[in-house]
Amino acid sequence: MKKIFIAGQWKLGGGKAIKSHYPADHSENADISTASSDDIHEAIVAADKAWRNPAWRSALPSEKAAILFKAADLLEQKKTFLAKLQTRDNGKPITETTGLVNSAIATTRYIASSLETLDNELTNQRIQSVLTFTTHEPLGVVAAITPWNSPIASEIQKIVPALAGGNAVILKPAEATSLIALELAAIFEEAGLPAGLFSVLTGKGSVVGEAIVKHPLVQKISFTGSTSTGRHLAHVAAEKLISTSLELGGKSPTIVFEDANIDIAVNGVIYGIFSSSGQACIAGSRLFIHQNIYDQFLDALIKKTKNIIVGDPEDSNTQMGPLISEDHLSTVEHYVNMARDEGGNIVAGGQRLTGDAYDKGAYYAPTIITGLKNDAQVCQEEIFGPVLVVMPFSDEETLVAEANNSIYGLAAGIWTEDYRKAFDMAKRLEAGTIWINTYKKFSIATPFSGHKESGVGKEKGRLGILDYMQTKSIFLNLDEAPNPWCETK
Ligand code: NAD
């Protein structure tokens, strides 16, 4: 039974144990204990004490950064192990999980460097003899709640800037993928992070997650996950009047114009939807192709999709692994059946994969659907699986209206050789991230955020630390004369 990390101690949690399974064959990875309500209270009280402790509050930015740099070195030393562990936990191919660990290392070093150069401000003097400063202060205890699809990257993306901002962090990983979070606790402990500043509380979202966010000492909710859970957490935060950052779902459009380089665009579209088996918030799941190249592009797309190597996630040649679970496969099946009912044509995939190793895991074929209109349910709802809906377009006004006709606004892709048109389109699409002639590229230096129901707030960017801080303005009077208001005439 795996212990969990509560207030600087490795303990068996008092909650009901959960299991981690390898999605490729459903074999058991580990039994993991979960947090009870007493464990949650203990961790949060200790976190509140830890961030207030002068040893951390008064530590120099360079001293905090040194701990983060050490954590980055440890992540690097354990890179192969962590990538394999995440593959075991969520079934993502090893090449992808290795990329995610690299991203976690880079994020940690980037934030540590930013912390060293983050300044408070001496604001413009507007009052004679009074100096005005604005300082950045920690918020307190941050609840970080994460999903199962990319834990190593999404967890580091929250923990590191929150700690850099002087806060304490309570991490609640997804039930299916707690193993990486526990390794991160061991890494930060070894890096010398003072006890109490970071706890990992495993367990069910509706029980453990709910109790964490509602605890009176929690001052910020940093959440990545579905829009429905995000909306619920926004209500909890509104009741407590605390800040949130919510990174939520998507149904991102990809647009291929007539003048696009077809070979390059086909590869980009395939990668955009089918990498991670489509289990990515930014998956390019709605494809609009100009009608003059529709048939040619679709043929090339189907041919290449049928060649995707779906299989053993631990094999470095594998492009697509299994889905996270049988339950999730049923959801994907449900949507593909719904597409059939809505009049869609399944031109690739459309069923679970069977035979040999496929029988042991939740493998679903990369699937392409045509013949539906953008207002079909399958085109509007997030499937979070390897399912692409394809639609033709002819005029740009209708295209923009349809691409933007979604409750989501997370990302969009544009494929064209005409950079003026691409830039104009980028400005008109309602999404937090726009990729032109590329897809699913990230940079820790560039903010990431969702528009509309894809999120509130942002992550990443040099000043991402400030999202975990609040400002304080200090007026320092240098005038020795008494306040004339009190002088009697
Ligand atoms: P989810 O919302 O079901 O769960 C996410 C996390 O919230 C889990 O840890 C879960 O245990 C916890 N949770 C659930 N109910 C809770 C509650 N009442 N109180 C507190 N915590 C609770 O999402 P999921 O199925 O794990 O992940 C898939 C979703 O995440 C998709 O919608 C995807 O688009 C989204 N996602 C978004 C981004 C982004 O950056 N925008 C990145 C990855 C995934």
Structural write-up:
The protein is α/β, with parallel strands linked by helices and 489 residues long. It folds into two domains: 4-248 and 454-474, Aldehyde Dehydrogenase, Chain A, domain 1; 253-436, Aldehyde Dehydrogenase, Chain A, domain 2 (3-Layer(aba) Sandwich), CATH 3.40.309.10. 38% of the residues lie in helices and 21% in strands. The chain is built from 15 helices and 24 strands. The chain has helices at residues 37-52, 54-57, 61-77, 79-90, 94-117, 151-164, 179-190, 205-214, 227-240, 262-274, 294-306, 326-341, 377-380, 396-404, 419-428, and strands at residues 4-6, 9-11, 18-21, 28-32, 121-123, 130-138, 141-145, 168-172, 198-200, 218-224, 243-247, 253-256, 286-290, 345-348, 367-370, 387-393, 408-409, 411-415, 433-436, 448-449, 451-452, 455-456, 458-459, 469-477. The strands form seven sheets. Strands 14-15-16-13-12-18-19 form a seven-stranded mixed β-sheet, sandwiched between helices. A six-stranded mixed β-sheet has the order 9-8-7-10-11-22, with helices on both faces. Strands 5-6-24 form a three-stranded antiparallel β-sheet, with no helix packed on it. A hairpin with a 6-residue loop joins β5 and β6. α4 (79-90) crosses α5 (94-117). The protein is globular. It starts with a strand and ends in a 12-residue tail after the last strand. The model has no long low-confidence stretch (mean pLDDT 97). Bound molecules: nicotinamide-adenine-dinucleotide. Residues 145-149, 154, 172-175, 205-206, 209-210, 213, 224-226, 229, 232, 247-250, 281, 382, 384, 410, 450, 455 line the site of nicotinamide-adenine-dinucleotide.
